[in-house]
């Protein structure tokens, strides 16, 4: 079991200093993610989901406690290019076309020209943006930009995918479609995925593990191991098991809100 | 092309002001002269006199244009009396200095952005360097460069081997270029430091998730984001470079170029010659700035920055 | 041929006709010299150039050369082609200045950059302070005579051979002006002389070069005095700015000839002593504090004029 | 020496004010020591480049002259010219920003006029405005105008689409959009111009004095003392210029930090 | 009836010129919105919802056809400050604090100091951001930024509210809460609301009229008048009527996607 641990957070604290006092974004967070896990993070807005994901990717420095990835520090893992990261906002570079944006990580990681073209085409198709490769970001709708940023993270084969509300700006049908695609990709490649979402059904449908968080200070209130089989179709959402898990998540979420209202 | 009419309008307004100014500023002299000669001048006499003085306080536009015409079109461009010849002397120092200066400026900016030690130690001294009056150290610099023999571009012998005779502009080019570079590197440093620091946190974080090397972050993120600042700096930098070249011409030997024309024009009281050189320099500056503007528009459009 | 570099005090003009004539007519070549003439300018201090090794011989005015000597730069006068001074103070008659006694309270334009010493000595002997108050108000005059034309100064400094004529050209008549020649006021100081660094004079080979250089230069001056118009034309040809006019340079050559007249190149000791006395007399603030030693030599001219 | 700097700059102390002053000081002292060593070692004549110790001695013994010159050139000439020039450029930028017609017409012509080199304009401005500081201020105005104008115009165009659209949904008037969006968004650029102009102002005021001045002022002193070969005095004036200029720049940079705290280049 | 028309689009066409050819964002769009309507726009990503909303607010110029608002041109209405607009991305001004951002429209419209403070407090509370007024935008989580931008649009009393996926980045519970708040506000103030969303339940729950759009070129494929009563509680989502409407919307949406896949 032990060699399968990919991400491990121990007593993680993270405090931001701001102009009017410190903000405790994460407090005493413990979590173990194993290889091949699909972990969803859910919780009220501002509870620290993004901060936690960023800490895993070594984009934030914990104030206390430790976080290890693949047995090394998060920062070493970052330097080994262990992550594909999708930011909450699309964050495309405005001076590059969509194809150029997707190509960016490939250029940096030294892919060949031919490989790049192939990867770009593949992921553009995956997110349903074929034909938009030559457009600039501001010529795309909000949802299209978000899909482009997903494509950018998928273009290279990182073992760990960290996705911060990737499907927030998409309609149900595209979302369902991308959910299926993502599950398929995950099953095929055995990636480890950390996934922030606000949609309870999405979290339940996708995850092997659901982490419920609550704010001020941000902490984990519940960790739900999914009992659903790894191989899932969309129909699974009508099963009692699914509904039960969703219920438990909703309760956790509500409790988190209660604290504070 | 849409801008032709506005430009013409503004130029016309300017000319009107200029003519009025010429009449006003030169009239004192005309009246003074008349008084000493004991005659009364009518208004029309004042106007004709003020617009045709040989040593006006402010020459009339047509006088300057005539002078320009005579010293550009009507002179062989290799003649020492041709403004084109002198313009080229100045331009060559400007361009060489601009290339040095921009190169140095960009390098320093990169160093400052990437190395905290450089940021803290170089920046204050770069600022201090610009507060040193260039006209004060230009002569010292010329003397020193003269002493170590670094005055000609390529050197007389090399140039002769390459071109038969040493092209006139190469003689004494280096000190002027160094001074031009000295003035032009600073705006580039300031603008580029700001520009290279312009990427926002998320854009930088993206690079960190790729564990991009410093070089990759530079080429793919910092440099593209700095482009608007870069071109603005270049525009100021090339104008500064021209000023540097002209200033340097006062301490260089032999005295020539547009700066030399201004100096000798002033020394021999040839107001028209000063103004012609002045306008010549401004045309040069405008052309250079315009060129960079065109480059900027082209680049930014290719970068999809503006519809 | 031996290479030799001469740094002028100012831009190429008839003031330096002798050297250009000698160059163009091959006088230097005949002396087996390969002479390079470096024109000066408002921002070129000949003493600094020679200190930096940029020239072998420089042309300078004696006041500034002696001041440099006091600063620790051992300049030595090896020849003095200019016998008399061309410096004047030119005033507008309508300003009311008629004699030096009228200067008090006036605004006077003066050249600085080492050219101010004769003026300061003069004011010293007149007992006028130069920092406003009950003395005179001094302006640092630019390159040109604008201040007097614009009425910003009552008097400006002029040279007989240049600025004075610019005032005339600008339209003021000679009878609108009052001029005070330093020569006439008894405060004349020696102008364009040839100076080298003292320690190099011990080098026999260099001495020999200087001898040939002075000989050829004086030949040039003689020729220029005899053929003023041709000399002016030679100057015009060598002017890199293309700014000079024939009219002005010919007239300047004529005036210059008056200043070089009477000099065979050898320094006149009486004139030297008078210059030193003037500089030492500068009231509370003399230009030099003690009579200099070894600031001139006749060795070169003696050999050259044999 | 250099390694001290690298060590300090990367040490945990790096944020402290002390280190911020110390690091450039170490660099500067290194420079001065090398300078002193070179001048003495190579026996460079004093009339070419005096050693720092000689300059310091001269500085200390001439404080009264240096002060008078400083007031004449910096306070009267440079500062007033800076304020007028930057103000005028700023207003021009705002004015032509509002009118596309003027922008297309005035900007190229404005660039053109501002590109007139100081060597040519200074004698003319001295002729027009007299020998005292007014003409120096005028030279400074002409010199700082262009950099300030270019930066401000560029800055006023710097707000992004959505930020401008927001103002449109409020039916905001032009002055409101200017005040609440375009000016704040332009601040990083405007301060760029202001910073570059600080050094230009000082240079302009000093250089202008070469073309005629009363017998005080930093430029007057420099040009006069070069002619007199008192290079130590020249460098003492240069030191004043460097100190005053750096302080001037520093003040503007500090204000910038306060005003544009939100810009990514100010957050690190 | 006629004097109740607030927004009217007639044969609206809108084409963007891009570096690789024109994009037909809207084609032949006709729609009438009456006073007090709550109109939702739903459709696949890139179908022109944002563009349509922007055209209503006179932020885009139609290539063809006309759009009138309150009987005048959209642009006149804009200049009369008829709109409160929530953009798809938060778009807060980074140099202003959250409170400062919310104050912005109030300053522009000339509210008094006291009024401003009052309004700011009220809307900060409404979107659950009390205590964050003094923070700067980059110190807030994505969802908090979005809520701040909603608060900004609500701070002044525009008659027409145009909201582009305002609740995209919020979790279910906050979302439900804000949905209720919005309905309450709408019922109380009789505002006319245009609302882009990707959530079918949200659209059905909120709207009196649901506009289903489909892409390439963007056009309206269905307009569904809701038969639900104006006074709704969250429970209404379990009624058959609700489920029927949702079904019809889903069908429309699916058809739109079909065109294109
Ligand atoms: N400024 C622009 N220039 C060029 N094309 C544009 C521009 N803005 C939008 N488009 C194009 O217009 C179409 C409609 O875009 P719009 O933003 O209206 O979509 P949307 O329905 O809001 O989608 P989403 O739900 O993803 O936000 C898209 O194909 C987009 O690429
Ligand atoms: N750079 C920062 N400086 C100061 N405070 C910050 C910063 N980033 C986040 N915070 C604060 O940390 C807390 C957690 O923010 P975080 O972005 O992790 O929330 P989240 O769970 O991702 O919320 P959302 O669902 O809205 O995106 C918030 O209270 C936020 O204000
Ligand atoms: C800055 C400046 N300094 C001196 C002069 C005057 N000047 C011109 S030629 C000459 C004689 C020396 O060759 C002198 C004293 C000036 N016009 N401008
Ligand atoms: Mg978040
Ligand atoms: Mg949209």
UniProtKB/TrEMBL annotation, chains A, E:
<dbReference type="InterPro" id="IPR050166">
    <property type="entry name" value="ABC_transporter_ATP-bind"/>
</dbReference>
<keyword id="KW-0067">ATP-binding</keyword>
<keyword id="KW-0547">Nucleotide-binding</keyword>
<protein>
    <submittedName>
        <fullName>ABC transporter ATP-binding protein</fullName>
    </submittedName>
</protein>
<dbReference type="InterPro" id="IPR027417">
    <property type="entry name" value="P-loop_NTPase"/>
</dbReference>
<dbReference type="InterPro" id="IPR003439">
    <property type="entry name" value="ABC_transporter-like_ATP-bd"/>
</dbReference>
<comment type="similarity">
    <text>Belongs to the ABC transporter superfamily.</text>
</comment>
<dbReference type="InterPro" id="IPR003593">
    <property type="entry name" value="AAA+_ATPase"/>
</dbReference>
<feature type="domain" description="ABC transporter">
    <location>
        <begin position="9"/>
        <end position="240"/>
    </location>
</feature>
<dbReference type="InterPro" id="IPR017871">
    <property type="entry name" value="ABC_transporter-like_CS"/>
</dbReference>
<dbReference type="GO" id="GO:0005524">
    <property type="term" value="F:ATP binding"/>
</dbReference>
<keyword id="KW-0813">Transport</keyword>
<dbReference type="Pfam" id="PF00005">
    <property type="entry name" value="ABC_tran"/>
</dbReference>
From TrEMBL, chain B:
<keyword id="KW-1133">Transmembrane helix</keyword>
<feature type="domain" description="ABC transmembrane type-1">
    <location>
        <begin position="83"/>
        <end position="296"/>
    </location>
</feature>
<comment type="similarity">
    <text>Belongs to the binding-protein-dependent transport system permease family.</text>
</comment>
<feature type="transmembrane region" description="Helical">
    <location>
        <begin position="173"/>
        <end position="193"/>
    </location>
</feature>
<feature type="transmembrane region" description="Helical">
    <location>
        <begin position="272"/>
        <end position="295"/>
    </location>
</feature>
<dbReference type="InterPro" id="IPR000515">
    <property type="entry name" value="MetI-like"/>
</dbReference>
<dbReference type="Pfam" id="PF00528">
    <property type="entry name" value="BPD_transp_1"/>
</dbReference>
<keyword id="KW-1003">Cell membrane</keyword>
<keyword id="KW-0812">Transmembrane</keyword>
<feature type="transmembrane region" description="Helical">
    <location>
        <begin position="229"/>
        <end position="252"/>
    </location>
</feature>
<feature type="transmembrane region" description="Helical">
    <location>
        <begin position="125"/>
        <end position="148"/>
    </location>
</feature>
<keyword id="KW-0813">Transport</keyword>
<feature type="transmembrane region" description="Helical">
    <location>
        <begin position="88"/>
        <end position="113"/>
    </location>
</feature>
<dbReference type="InterPro" id="IPR035906">
    <property type="entry name" value="MetI-like_sf"/>
</dbReference>
<feature type="transmembrane region" description="Helical">
    <location>
        <begin position="7"/>
        <end position="25"/>
    </location>
</feature>
UniProtKB/TrEMBL annotation, chain D:
<feature type="transmembrane region" description="Helical">
    <location>
        <begin position="79"/>
        <end position="97"/>
    </location>
</feature>
<keyword id="KW-0812">Transmembrane</keyword>
<feature type="transmembrane region" description="Helical">
    <location>
        <begin position="233"/>
        <end position="255"/>
    </location>
</feature>
<feature type="transmembrane region" description="Helical">
    <location>
        <begin position="137"/>
        <end position="158"/>
    </location>
</feature>
<feature type="transmembrane region" description="Helical">
    <location>
        <begin position="21"/>
        <end position="42"/>
    </location>
</feature>
<dbReference type="Pfam" id="PF00528">
    <property type="entry name" value="BPD_transp_1"/>
</dbReference>
<keyword id="KW-0813">Transport</keyword>
<feature type="transmembrane region" description="Helical">
    <location>
        <begin position="109"/>
        <end position="131"/>
    </location>
</feature>
<keyword id="KW-0472">Membrane</keyword>
<feature type="domain" description="ABC transmembrane type-1">
    <location>
        <begin position="88"/>
        <end position="259"/>
    </location>
</feature>
<dbReference type="InterPro" id="IPR000515">
    <property type="entry name" value="MetI-like"/>
</dbReference>
<dbReference type="InterPro" id="IPR035906">
    <property type="entry name" value="MetI-like_sf"/>
</dbReference>
<keyword id="KW-1133">Transmembrane helix</keyword>
<feature type="transmembrane region" description="Helical">
    <location>
        <begin position="189"/>
        <end position="213"/>
    </location>
</feature>
<protein>
    <submittedName>
        <fullName>ABC transporter permease</fullName>
    </submittedName>
</protein>
């Amino acid at each position: 079991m032990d060699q399968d641990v990919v991400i491990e957070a121990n007593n993680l604290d993270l405090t931001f200093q701001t102009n009017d006092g410190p903000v405790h974004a994460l407090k005493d967070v413990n979590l173990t993610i194993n290889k091949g896990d699909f972990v969803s993070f859910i919780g009220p807005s501002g509870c620290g989901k993004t901060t936690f994901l960023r800490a895993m990717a070594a984009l934030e420095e914990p104030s206390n406690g430790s976080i290890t990835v693949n047995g090394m520090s998060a920062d070493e893992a970052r330097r080994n290019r262990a992550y594909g990261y999708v930011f909450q906002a699309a964050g495309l570079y405005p001076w590059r076309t969509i194809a150029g944006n997707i190509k960016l990580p490939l250029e940096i990681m030294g892919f060949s020209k031919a490989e790049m073209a192939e990867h770009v085409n593949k992921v553009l198709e995956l997110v349903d943006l074929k034909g938009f490769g030559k457009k600039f970001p501001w010529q795309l709708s909000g949802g299209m930009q978000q899909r482009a940023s997903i494509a950018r993270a998928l273009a290279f084969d990182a073992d760990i995918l960290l996705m911060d509300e990737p499907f927030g700006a998409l309609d149900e049908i595209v979302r369902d479609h991308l959910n299926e695609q993502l599950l398929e990709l995950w099953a095929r490649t055995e990636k480890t995925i950390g996934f922030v979402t606000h949609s309870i059904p999405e979290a339940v449908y996708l995850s092997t593990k659901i982490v419920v968080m609550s704010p001020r200070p941000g902490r984990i209130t519940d960790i739900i191991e999914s009992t659903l089989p790894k191989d899932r179709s969309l129909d699974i959402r009508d099963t009692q098991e699914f509904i039960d898990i969703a219920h438990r998540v909703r309760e956790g979420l509500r409790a988190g809100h209660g604290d504070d209202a | 092309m849409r801008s032709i009419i506005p430009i013409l309008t503004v130029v016309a307004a300017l000319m009107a002001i200029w003519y009025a100014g010429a009449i006003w500023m030169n009239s004192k002299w005309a009246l003074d002269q008349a008084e000493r000669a004991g005659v009364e001048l009518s208004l029309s006499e004042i106007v004709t006199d003020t617009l045709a003085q040989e040593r006006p306080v402010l020459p009339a536009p047509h006088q300057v244009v005539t002078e320009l015409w005579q010293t550009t079109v009507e002179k062989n461009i290799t003649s020492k009396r041709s403004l084109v010849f002198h313009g080229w002397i100045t331009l060559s120092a400007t361009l060489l200095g601009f290339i040095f200066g921009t190169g140095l400026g960009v390098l320093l900016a990169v160093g400052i952005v990437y190395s905290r030690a450089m940021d803290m130690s170089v920046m204050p001294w770069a600022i201090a360097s610009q507060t040193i009056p260039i006209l004060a150290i230009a002569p010292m610099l010329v003397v020193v460069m003269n002493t170590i023999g670094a005055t000609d571009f390529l050197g007389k012998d090399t140039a002769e081997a390459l071109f038969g005779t040493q092209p006139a502009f190469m003689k004494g080019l280096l000190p002027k270029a160094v001074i031009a570079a000295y003035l032009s590197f600073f705006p580039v440093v300031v603008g580029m430091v700001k520009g290279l620091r312009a990427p926002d946190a998320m854009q930088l974080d993206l690079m960190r998730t790729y564990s991009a090397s410093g070089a990759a972050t530079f080429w793919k993120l910092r440099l593209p984001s700095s482009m608007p600042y870069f071109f603005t700096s270049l525009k100021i930098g090339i104008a500064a470079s021209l000023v540097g070249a002209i200033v340097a011409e006062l301490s260089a030997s032999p005295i020539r170029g547009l700066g030399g024309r201004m100096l000798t024009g002033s020394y021999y009281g040839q107001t028209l010659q000063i103004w012609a050189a002045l306008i010549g320099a401004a045309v040069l500056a405008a052309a250079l700035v315009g060129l960079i503007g065109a480059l900027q528009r082209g680049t930014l459009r290719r970068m999809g920055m503006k519809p | 041929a031996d290479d030799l570099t001469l740094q002028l005090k100012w831009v190429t003009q008839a003031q330096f006709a002798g050297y250009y004539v000698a160059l163009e007519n091959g006088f230097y070549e005949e002396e087996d010299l390969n002479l390079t003439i470096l024109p000066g300018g408002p921002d070129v201090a000949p003493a600094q150039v020679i200190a930096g090794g940029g020239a072998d011989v420089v042309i300078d005015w004696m006041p500034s050369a002696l001041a440099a000597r006091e600063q620790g730069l051992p300049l030595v006068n090896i020849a003095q082609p200019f016998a008399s001074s061309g410096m004047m103070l030119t005033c507008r008659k309508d300003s009311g200045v008629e004699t030096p006694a009228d200067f008090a309270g006036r605004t006077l334009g003066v050249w600085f950059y080492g050219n101010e010493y004769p003026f300061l000595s003069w004011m010293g002997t007149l007992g006028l302070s130069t920092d406003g108050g009950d003395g005179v108000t001094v302006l640092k005059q630019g390159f040109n005579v604008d201040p007097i034309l614009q009425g910003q100064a009552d008097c400006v400094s002029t040279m007989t051979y240049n600025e004075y004529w610019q005032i005339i050209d600008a339209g003021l008549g000679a009878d609108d002006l009052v001029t005070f020649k330093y020569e006439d006021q008894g405060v004349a100081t020696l102008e364009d002389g040839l100076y080298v660094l003292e320690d190099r004079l011990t080098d026999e080979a260099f001495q020999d070069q200087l001898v040939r250089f002075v000989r050829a230069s004086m030949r040039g001056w003689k020729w220029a005095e005899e053929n003023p118009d041709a000399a002016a034309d030679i100057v015009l040809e060598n002017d890199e700015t293309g700014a000079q006019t024939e009219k002005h340079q010919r007239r300047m050559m004529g005036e210059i000839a008056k200043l070089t007249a009477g000099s065979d190149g050898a320094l006149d000791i009486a004139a030297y002593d008078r210059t030193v006395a003037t500089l030492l007399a500068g009231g509370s603030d003399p230009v030099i504090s003690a009579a200099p030693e070894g600031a001139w030599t006749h060795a070169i001219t003696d050999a050259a004029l044999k | 020496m250099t390694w001290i700097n690298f060590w300090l700059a990367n040490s945990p102390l790096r944020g402290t004010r002390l280190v911020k002053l110390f690091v450039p000081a170490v660099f500067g002292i290194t420079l001065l020591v090398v300078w002193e060593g070179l001048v003495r070692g190579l026996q460079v004549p004093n009339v070419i480049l005096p050693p720092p110790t000689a300059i310091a001695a001269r500085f200390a013994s001439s404080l009264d002259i240096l002060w008078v010159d400083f007031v004449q050139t910096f306070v009267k000439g440079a500062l007033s010219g800076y304020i007028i020039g930057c103000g005028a450029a700023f207003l021009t930028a705002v004015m032509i920003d509002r009118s596309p017609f003027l922008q297309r017409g005035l900007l190229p012509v404005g660039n053109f006029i501002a590109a007139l080199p100081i060597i040519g304009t200074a004698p003319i401005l001295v002729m027009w405005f007299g020998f005292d500081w007014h003409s120096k201020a005028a030279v400074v105005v002409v010199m700082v105008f262009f950099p300030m104008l270019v930066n401000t115009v560029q800055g006023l165009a710097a707000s992004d689409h959505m930020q401008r659209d927001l103002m449109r949904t409020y039916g905001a008037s032009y002055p409101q959009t200017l005040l609440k969006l375009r000016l704040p968004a332009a601040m990083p650029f405007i301060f760029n111009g202001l910073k570059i102009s600080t050094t230009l102002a000082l240079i302009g005021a000093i250089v202008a004095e070469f073309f005629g001045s009363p017998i005080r002022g930093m430029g007057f002193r420099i040009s006069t003392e070069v002619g007199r070969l008192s290079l130590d005095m020249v460098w003492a004036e240069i030191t004043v210029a460097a100190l005053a200029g750096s302080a001037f720049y520093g003040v503007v940079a500090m204000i910038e930090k306060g005003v544009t705290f939100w810009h990514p280049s100010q957050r690190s």
